[in-house]
Amino acid sequence: MSTETAPVTHDTPDADAPALAPPADAAVHDHVHDHVHDHATYGYSPAKAEYLRRLRRIEGQVRGIARMVDEDVYCIDVLTQVAAVTKALQAVSIGLVEDHLGHCVVDAARQSPEAGAEKVREASAAIARLVRS
Q1: Could you tell me which of 24, 20, 10, 18 has the C-alpha nearest to residue 132?
Q2: How far apart are CA 70 and CA 75, in angstroms?
Q3: Of 10, 28, 80, 113, which residue is 20 to 30 A from 63 by alpha carbon distance?
């Protein structure tokens, strides 16, 4: 069994490109689908293709990590790749937060102070979940 594997690289976000974010867990994912939103499109919609490209890259990185474990690669090397994926997911999360604030929160605040305050509370709760993860 070979201990050599191709390195799994992480995607560092370009300064001008939005970051991406997959669902953190099933509970959050279900909440997103059950939640009623005011808009037919979301803040990330204009960059959807870029988000999907980055998510596919992260998905490939995770498959690479699974392959490393299957091939009994040295644990520190596996941890290095886990850290790279974690950083890529954090960048995705930050991009989604920026998109949400710039689109959903701003639009709600234009509708009414109450709607804006609700979107700010929603964003704050999402940020708190990210910080705890």
Answers
A1: 24
A2: 12
A3: 28
Q: In 3-state terms, what secondary structure has residue 120?
A: helix
Measured CA angle at 102 (ends 42, 24), to 5 deg? 55
Angstrom distances, CA of residue 62 to CA of 7, 9, 15, 58, 86: 12, 11, 24, 6, 10
Those residues with Cβ within 8 angstroms of residue 105's Cβ, 6 or more apart along the chain or in another chain: 116, 119, 120, 123
CB 18, CB 44: distance < 8 Å:
yes
DSSP 3: -
Integer Cα distance of 133 and 124 in angstroms: 14
**Residue 92 has what pLDDT?**
92
Question: 37: which residues sit within 8 A by CB, 6+ positions away?
Answer: 104
CA 54 to the chain's CA centroid: 9
Cα–Cα nearest to 12, from 100, 129, 92: 92
